[in-house]
Amino acid sequence: MFHKLKRILIPLLIIAVAVAVFVYMKSTKPEQKPVSVQEKVWMVESMVAEFETLSPVQTLYGKVESNSMVSASAPVTGVVDKVLVKEGESVKKGQALLSISEPDLTIPLAQANADFEDAKAQLSLQRLTNQANQKRFEHESKVLKLKQTAVQRSQQLMAKNLASQSSLDAANEALVRQEYVVVGSKLAVQENQLKIAQSEARLAKTKAALQQAELNLRRGQLVAPYDARIAKVNVSEGSRVNAGAVMISFYALESLELRAKLPTSLLVSVTKALQDEVAMNAFYQTATKEESLRLLRLAGEATTSGVDAFFAVPSVLSELRPGELMEINLKGVAEDSVVAVPYSAIYGNDRLYLIEDERLVSHTVNVVGEVLRDGRLWALVKPDFAAGSRISITHLPNATTGLKVSEVLK
């Protein structure tokens, strides 16, 4: 009985001791303070919204062109005698560029002059012949009148029986022959007048050929018509060229223009400005300062991507060459009540965040263009908030309305 009771009490005693130890350890454990969760604060830069009247700037990319590129062709077939310039060289007005061999120019001139003198002599001869034919016609006409008078006299004598029929027939025969002679002399006068007209036409033709030969002689000694830059030289000394072959190309330094593609979104405002004669300028940043390029005109044809606009290249940029690419900023028509903000403040295309009570508040805005600030492009927005509002300009990937921030005023 004792052994049976012992087997029951020992396990109960172990359980009781274990429970007592657990209760003791639970009652004596240290108490932990409740963990408090603090909201994270994001550091952002901010700026004060200032309403201004500003002109939006549109970045354009264009290519330099010349509106007076001259391709000088050979006036005659001949040999190039001298080439006095090289490609890319700047030349002054009146400076010799190249020349064609003198015999190739003077021989056609001598031939044209000979043809002209021959035509003059032929015309003079035809005029002398015309004078002789005119006198012959006058003489034969007088003889015709005498023959007509003789016929009338014979008729009167026949009426009085003082002349025979044979004498009247002879007078009529002489009259008919003289009429034929008069017709022939008149035809000679008319034919000679046509020959004079032909000779005058031939003289005019040979005179034009002579003038062309004289012009070719001048063109064969090519000189710069104005201050220019040589774009390309296609021949060298000793080259044989055909008439009409391009020998050299050059352009005036003051003829440089910039052709840039104008987006369709700006076409209406730019067209209206040109019609109203409102000056519009683009700006090009050089190493030292900003240069202005005046808008001249729009192209006559458009494409789906926009219309080409032409800008005058100022003389200070005359070192530019046709074909060079340029980045310019077109200054548009001024906008009232707009705010300039850095692009870091813009989310998407039409949203920014104001800071109100240390929290971000989303606002939808209308981006109307860009403006240059300290050499950088800022967005130009039409706001729906009041002037003096604080704008967050630090771009946060997790930005949302209600996000707690700590601002650093810029």
TrEMBL record:
Name this protein carries in UniProt: Biotin/lipoyl-binding protein
InterPro entries: MdtA-like_BSH
Coiled coil: 187-216
Keywords from the named record: Coiled coil, Membrane, Transmembrane, Transmembrane helix
Residue intervals passing through the bilayer: 7-25
Similarity comment text for this entry: Belongs to the membrane fusion protein (MFP) (TC 8.A.1) family.
Pfam families, per the entry: BSH_RND
Gene3D superfamilies linked: 2.40.30.170, 2.40.50.100, Helix hairpin bin (1.10.287.470)
Species in which this protein is naturally found: Thiomicrorhabdus lithotrophica
Ranges where the Multidrug resistance protein MdtA-like barrel-sandwich hybrid domain occurs: 70-245
Keyword hit for Coiled coil: yes
